[in-house]
Specification:
WH_DNA-bd_sf (chains A, B), Tscrpt_reg_HTH_GntR (chains A, B), homodimer, transcription (chains A, B), 227 residues, DNA-binding (chains A, B), Four Helix Bundle (Hemerythrin (Met), subunit A), Arc Repressor Mutant, subunit A, DNA-binding, GntR family transcriptional regulator (chains A, B)
Chain lengths: 227, 227
Amino acid sequence: MSLPSNVPQAASGRQVARPVPLRETVYDAILEMIITGELAPGRHLVEKELAEMLGVSRQPVREALQWLKKDEWVDLRPGYGAFVHSPTPEEADQLLGVRTLLEAESARLAALHSTKEGVAALKQTYKRGVAALKADDIDTVVSANAELHTQITAMSGNKILGELAGQVARRVRWYHTPVAKSRGKKSWDEHAALIDAIAKGDADLAARLMREHTEHTRESYLERAED
Amino acid sequence: MSLPSNVPQAASGRQVARPVPLRETVYDAILEMIITGELAPGRHLVEKELAEMLGVSRQPVREALQWLKKDEWVDLRPGYGAFVHSPTPEEADQLLGVRTLLEAESARLAALHSTKEGVAALKQTYKRGVAALKADDIDTVVSANAELHTQITAMSGNKILGELAGQVARRVRWYHTPVAKSRGKKSWDEHAALIDAIAKGDADLAARLMREHTEHTRESYLERAED
DNA sequence: CGCCCGCATACTGTATGCTAAATCCGACGA
DNA sequence: TCGTCGGATTTAGCATACAGTATGCGGGCG
């Protein structure tokens, strides 16, 4: 056949690998540096510096900084510059409160909308987390934990809720990481019970378990924060 | 004293009346145009056009558009341009769900942290709303309604919560306005009961009332949306 | 007559130059 | 010694210029 030209149709979802706008790459890069601690809280970020560091012009850096400001990762002082946001204990506490609220509701909805496949995916992530826990592979534990929560919020079917919960959770994780690496096995036992409740479609139980789960995290935060 | 030149000192909280960055003005201007409907959903926003319209260069416009994208007021198509976001019924529904969640929690916390002055302020706003209702002054009714909710979320003492609730509420109002101007007297009766619960410090009651109140709004939305 | 290719156009993406303002530091005076 | 003033420097804010790419249209071929 001629296969004249027509629609490549890139079978799978995405077209042909569009070049991601530079500002997004820059945004990710800076955020990464903030989360890993390479850029410490309070640090003065200079556009020109970042631009040179990343090998781009100031323009994309500016736009990335605007995004970061919107997400509260940096504070922008007009006329001066950007500073990595310094979380206050009060703010961390409020954030934890909001997270509890959002995640509990997510769990409730997830229980109502749970599917076989969804639950299977949850269990798989759970296994990954537990295995990493046994192997003392902290990084994987943390990432599995994050993914599990993401999956649950996604399963809620409410995109707005999922988006908010995701943002809040990411900030919480950043605040939380330095004080408490993880609560270990107990946390994963709670996960197991939670998944069970979702699988059974018991919305109230799921919400309650998630609420308790995130509250435990909050308590562990408050304990450690007393240093 | 000499008052040689120095600081005008703009008495109240903020420093000295800093000249607001242009991008913020532009942001407000565009948002205003979106909310009032001057820029209809789906409309293609051209940077150059907006820049000329507002008498500034493309740069501040770009930054304002990035902010608007973050707040989901516009959709940004890489390589093409910005479009005023078109709300889907599904999205509106999810947004209403999240709003209920956030506002109910705000009311609960507000009840726990209520002060004499705060309650007095609420009552004042309430009076303003009721008076405007009688006078058929729709604009004032709407603004009083918005202010009342804002005051309650502020009273919760949780800034994060307040910020999220504010954003969500503004979008809800935009979606909602075209279909249902207001629910009238009944809505304000509910407000009265809610303020009462907050004044008494009855957190559970306040949360329940707020939940019912916002759910009523949701129902009225769904009814009208069937056109 | 319909489809497809190729070109012209318009817009965004990115880079850079210029201006105004905020900060910092040193010197002067009380 | 401390407070204050003034200048130098740094930095963001804003404007403009250039390049890459998506889009839409018109002409030509089947």
